[in-house]
Amino acid sequence: MLYNKNGFITYSANFDTTTGDFIMADTSVFMVNQGKQKNSLFLRLKKQYMIQLFVLCGIAFVVVFSYIPMFGIIIAFKDYSITAGISGMFTAPWNGFGHFIEFFNDHMFWVVVRNTLAISLLKIIFTFPAPIILAIVLNEITIAPIKRFAQTVSYLPHFISWVIVAGMAGSFFSQTRGVVNEILLYMNIIEDPLPILIESEYFWALAVGTEVWKATGWWSIIFLAAIAGVDPTLYEAAQIDGAGRLKRIWHITLPSIKGAIVVVLVLSIGNLLGGGIGGSNFEQSMLLGNVINRPHSEIIQTYAFRVAMVAGRFDYGAAITFIQSVISVVLIFSSNHIMKRITGSSLF
C-alpha cells in the first residue's frame, strides 16, 4: 500500500519481481483521516464523561484497596515488627520461608485446615444447589404478587449483617430459652435442651444452616436472570410434545442455564478456603465461635487474625493468609480447566 503526503491511502499495488513493475491490484481509493478519528474519540469521551468518571472511581477503588495493599505481603518473608511502621516493611531483615515452615509445623495447622475445608465443602454441597432450586421454584410461580413477595422475603437475609445474624442465632438456639429447643422439648423430640451454641460438634451444622438462610435468595438472582433469557418457545414446543413440568425443567431450564451454573461453581471452588459461594467464613467463626467450640470453629482466617492482632505477629499472620491466597488462585484455574473439559463452559 502506498501513502501520499496527506496520510491517505491512494491505491494498492503488487510488485512483480520478474519484470520490476508495479501491478495495480485495487484501484479503490480509501481515505483514512487520522485527525478525524482522534476528534471522534475525544468527542465520545466528552459525551460520556459522567460514565467515564464512574469507571475511574471503580478503578481507583480497586487500585487503592486491592493492589496497593499487596505490597504489604512482603512482611510474610521478613521478621517484621509493628513498631517499625510502614518503612519497616522494607528495612526489616529477611526471613525467607521461615514463617511458612513454622505454620506447616504448627500444632494448629491440621485443625484449621480441616475446619476450613469441612465448612467450605459443606457450604458448597448444601448452599450451591439451593439458589438454583429456589430460582426454578420462583420461575414456576405464575401468580405475580406471590412471586414478588417470595422474592423479596428470600432477598432480605442477605442485607442483614452477621452481627445481627449471630444475635438471632443466640435467641433461636439458646440452651435456656431458645425457640428451637422449646419447640423440640414441646414435641418430645428431645429430653434435654441441646447446647447448639456451645458444643463444638454442632458448629459446622450451625455455620452451614445460617449460610443457606442468608445467601440462597441473593444468589438466586443470577439464576433467575439466566432463566429469563431462555427462549419461551422451547417450553411451548416441549409442552405440545407432552413433556411435563419436571421434564421441561430437566431438559430445557437446566441445560439453558449451564453457563451461569459453571461460572458460580468455579467461583465457589476458587473461594473454597475462604467460604465458598457465601463468601467469607471469618464473620461466622468470629461471632459464633467461642473457646469451647474452637476445635471445630477455628479456621485459617480467624487463626491468622488471632496470631496477628492478639500475639502481634503480623509477619506470621501475613504468611498464613498468603498461603491461602495462593491455593485459592490454583483452585480457580484448575476448577475452570476441569469445567471447560467436562461441560464446555468456563469462566475464562
Task: Describe, in short, the structure shown.
This protein is 63% helix and 4% strand.
Write the layout of secondary structure elements.
Elements: E1 2-3, E2 9-15, E3 22-26, H1 34-47, H2 49-67, H3 88-91, H4 98-104, H5 109-127, H6 129-140, H7 144-155, H8 162-173, H9 179-186, H10 203-228, H11 232-240, H12 245-256, H13 258-270, H14 282-288, H15 294-297, H16 300-310, H17 314-343
Antiparallel strand pairs: 1-2, 2-3
Helix pairs in contact: 5-10, 6-10, 7-10, 8-14, 13-17, 16-17
Describe what you observe in this structure.
This protein has 348 residues and is mainly alpha-helical. It has three domains: 1-32, no CATH class; 40-96, no CATH class; 108-164 and 200-343, MetI-like (MetI-like fold). It has 17 helices and three strands. A three-stranded antiparallel beta sheet has the order 1-2-3, with no helix packed on it. A hairpin with a 5-residue loop joins strand 1 and strand 2. Helix 8 (162-173) crosses helix 14 and helix 13 (258-270) packs antiparallel against helix 17. The longest helix is centred in the last third of the chain and has 30 residues, at 314-343. Residues 1-12 and 21-33 have low confidence and may be disordered.
Largest sheet: 3 strands, antiparallel
Number of alpha- plus pi-helical segments: 17
Rg to the nearest angstrom? Answer: 29 Å
Report the β-strand fraction as a percent range. Answer: under 5%
Secondary-structure class: mainly alpha
Detail the poorly predicted runs: 1-12, 21-33
**CATH fold call of the largest domain:** MetI-like fold
Globally, the shape reads globular
Order of helices and strands: EEEHHHHHHHHHHHHHHHHH
